[in-house]
Amino acid sequence: MFCQYDLKDIHDRARAAFLGMAIGDALGATVEFMTAPEIQAKYGVFKNIIGGGWLRLKPGQVTDDTEMALCIARAIVRSQGWSLEQVARNFADWLKSRPVDCGDTCRKGIRSYMLHGALEAAPNEWDAGNGAAMRILPVALFSLPDETLLKKYALEQAHLTHNNPVSDAACACLGKMIHLALCGESKKRLRREVDGLVARFPTFSFEPYHGLATGYVVDTLQTVFHFFFRGRDLEECVVGTINQGGDADTTGAICGMLAGAYYGMEGIPQRWLKKMDKKVVSEIETVTGRLVAASPLGRAS
Ligand code: MN
Ligand code: MN
């Protein structure tokens, strides 16, 4: 059996995963594109949600990472099922709303949908940014605990903008790790997934960790893995990750979703939760409950 599940526990972890993602995004955005030494010189250890950064955010404001994940979540809730077309429409509406940030590959893919109705970007060996992996969480929740469904949704949503084998492998591995964490599996068990990924794509090896935290999905996941596996609680995992700088909102978002799924709500510092944008928190709580309830696991209970 995949998962000796306690649905209440899974709901708690799912909520923590989505909120953890938003928190990592809001926290990391302040130091996005800084280097680790620059962050250290300016803040010592950076660990409070204060906004600012190159996007001049309000404290607790989230960026494209959380917003695109919410686009996917809303599409599932609205369609009462999987509709890639609805995900694409939501991305398009979001892009038209002039978001605070949008990655180049994401923009290119969304434009191609808007202009040509394309639901799959052309395969591209350079499109191995972290833009598809960063928004994986809603499909991980909605597919619980079915790995085949997870892979289908994960790659379909990814290919709207990123059609690349390295990005695909990252999305599938991350999705599976989230499934396992939501079901209460150990870090040792999660680590086996990473070992499997590294066996297929040795470039993801993160030991020794080289300290690169760019938007290249390999650097991003190496950073997340390094700090997630050594961190003793959610705060330590996320703070370590974002203090590495680089694409810190996205590494923060990904580490936050993973650590949230792993540690659950009691792992999330209240001082962070209180600082978050209230509207975002309330929407996350609503959609998270609905995604889990609509998943195979939720429907079977
Ligand atoms: Mn962002
Ligand atoms: Mn980013």
Question: Which key terms come to mind for this protein?
Answer:
15 helices, 301 residues, 63% helix, single chain, mainly alpha, binds manganese (II) ion, ADP-ribosylglycohydrolase fold
Describe the fold and architecture:
The longest helix has 23 residues, at 7-29. The protein has a single domain (7-300), classed as ADP-ribosylglycohydrolase fold (Orthogonal Bundle), CATH 1.10.4080. It is mostly helical. Helix 4 packs across helix 5 (104-116) and helix 8 (165-182) runs antiparallel to helix 9. The mean pLDDT is 97. The chain is globular. The chain is built from 15 helices and no strands. Bound molecules: manganese (II) ion (2 copies). Residues 63-65, 101, 249-250 line the site of one manganese (II) ion.
Helix and strand content put the structural class at mainly alpha
Put simply, the count of helices is 15
> What is the architecture at the second tier of CATH?
Orthogonal Bundle
How many distinct domains?
1
Q: What is the mean pLDDT?
A: 97
Rg from alpha-carbon coordinates = 17 Å
Low-confidence stretches: none
Bound molecules: manganese (II) ion
Largest sheet: none
Number of strands: 0
Name the CATH superfamily classification: ADP-ribosylation/Crystallin J1
- Report the CATH C-level class: Mainly Alpha
- Counting copies of identical and different chains, the oligomeric state is single chain
Roughly how many Å apart are the termini?
A: 15 Å
Element pattern in H and E: HHHHHHHHHHHHHHH
